[in-house]
């Protein structure tokens, strides 16, 4: 596989698929440029070599063209970040895109229009309801599949080299994240620097972990983490459960959880997971105590109860002090740590203490020599809020992509460049 660090981009046009799906305020100003800054090392490498960059990215979830989701909005800030000429192309395909790409000079960046303005990017019909019978719908989908291939092939003609640096979209088999790679020779397609870091971080946790290995899983639903738990069961020594999903496990043990979040149809699954953990010698930790309220609100009066004795009129909002202490003790004895998902209702400041305690413990363990991978929106938000981003080993930019990678799935955007990934 071609390595970007050894590749010379001099005189070449590089089509770089990035994930610049950044948030905007009502005035159209970018409120968080983390994803843009994460791609800068790749862009700088290409430009400093004497190459030019063609940026392909999606923005939001448009159904056709939407001026509020035009990539023209990211051009001013990209100029500030790169200090080079940045030109916007109002399309991502066709004669104008081809002409502007060919006119691009070394050291310049061309930003193509939002690739999701084209139905072919995702291969999903914008208006499937317009088809009144199943045969017409089936024919439309088949036609779109062929058009998707054609779109990818057309995009490939814009550049000499393809660089995928969009880990956040690597789990999607879209035209510019996966299909396009087949139209470049093996020595003309590669991962960007961000993608390399992400892939190496996942591989280190799943296939090169030092023990004890502790996985901390939070979030609201067991159903969204079942595959992750099952894939990790043969790899971890400790499995810490937090967030709303913990109450399904507690109820599976016969505990009283009041009005706490619970997936009734997953109680048997939770029971099975606990039995598997016991059989494999994996220590599965549930919160000993819970901070509970009568109302789902930041300022709701709260009291702490044993997690299996929550009153009928109350709901769990965060893990308690004893759970924080228990989890901290395990984390500090770990050599590898994976954290995905908050311990409580992190969006409420009064119920973020459990997540913050975990973040502090993960950072402390990292300072003591552990390898820590943090991923998932709320976990990353917590780490960044506390200013601990530089005190853990790696903070992933991928949400869904990271989850699917941890589940052991082959990510289309990665396999398209490295068919041996994960083998």
TrEMBL record:
Gene3D superfamilies: Phosphoglycerate kinase, N-terminal domain. It comes from the Bacteria. Substrate binds at residues 19-21, 35, 58-61, 116, 172. (2R)-3-phosphoglycerate binds at residues 35, 116, 172. It catalyses: (2R)-3-phosphoglycerate + ATP = (2R)-3-phospho-glyceroyl phosphate + ADP. Keywords: ATP-binding, Cytoplasm, Glycolysis, Kinase, Nucleotide-binding, Transferase. This is Phosphoglycerate kinase. It comes from Porphyromonas asaccharolytica (strain ATCC 25260 / DSM 20707 / BCRC 10618 / CCUG 7834 / JCM 6326 / LMG 13178 / VPI 4198 / B440) (Bacteroides asaccharolyticus).
């Amino acid at each position: 596989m071609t390595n970007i660090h050894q590749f010379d981009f001099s005189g070449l046009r590089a089509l770089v698929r990035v994930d610049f799906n950044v948030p905007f305020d009502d005035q159209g100003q970018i409120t968080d440029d983390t994803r843009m800054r994460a791609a800068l090392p790749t862009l700088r490498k290409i430009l400093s070599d004497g190459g030019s960059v063609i940026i392909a990215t999606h923005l939001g979830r448009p159904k056709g063209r939407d001026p509020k989701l035009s990539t023209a909005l990211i051009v001013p800030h990209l100029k500030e970040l790169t200090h080079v000429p940045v030109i916007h192309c109002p399309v991502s395909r066709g004669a104008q895109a081809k002409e502007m790409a060919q006119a691009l000079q070394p050291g310049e960046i061309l930003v193509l229009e939002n690739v999701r303005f084209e139905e072919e990017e995702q291969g999903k019909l914008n208006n499937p309801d317009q088809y009144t019978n199943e045969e017409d719908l089936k024919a439309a989908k088949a036609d779109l599949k062929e058009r998707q291939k054609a779109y990818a092939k057309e995009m490939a003609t814009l550049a000499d080299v393809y660089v995928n640096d969009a880990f956040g979209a690597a789990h999607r088999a879209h035209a510019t994240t996966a299909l396009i790679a087949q139209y470049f020779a093996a020595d003309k397609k590669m991962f960007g620097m961000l993608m390399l870091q992400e892939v190496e971080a996942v591989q280190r946790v799943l296939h090169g972990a030092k023990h004890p290995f502790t996985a901390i899983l939070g979030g609201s639903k067991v159903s969204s983490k079942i595959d992750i738990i099952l894939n990790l069961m043969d790899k971890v020594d400790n499995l810490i459960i937090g967030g709303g999903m913990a109450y399904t496990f507690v109820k599976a043990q016969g505990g009283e959880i009041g009005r706490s979040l619970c997936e009734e149809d997953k109680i048997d699954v939770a029971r099975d997971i606990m039995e598997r953990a016991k059989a494999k010698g994996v220590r599965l930790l549930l919160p000993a105590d819970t901070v509970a309220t009568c109302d789902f609100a930041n300022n709701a009066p709260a009291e702490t109860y044993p997690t299996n004795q929550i009153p009928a009129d109350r709901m769990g909002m965060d893990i308690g002090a004893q759970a924080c202490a228990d989890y901290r003790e395990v984390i500090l004895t770990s050599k590898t740590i994976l954290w995905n998902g908050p311990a409580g209702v992190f969006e409420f400041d009064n119920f973020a203490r459990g997540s913050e305690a975990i973040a502090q413990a993960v950072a402390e363990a990292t300072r003591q020599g552990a390898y820590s991978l943090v991923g998932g929106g709320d976990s990353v938000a917590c780490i960044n809020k506390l200013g601990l981003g530089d005190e853990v080993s790696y903070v992933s930019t991928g949400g869904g992509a990271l989850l699917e990678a941890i589940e052991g799935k082959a990510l289309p955007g990665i396999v398209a460049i490295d068919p041996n990934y994960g083998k």
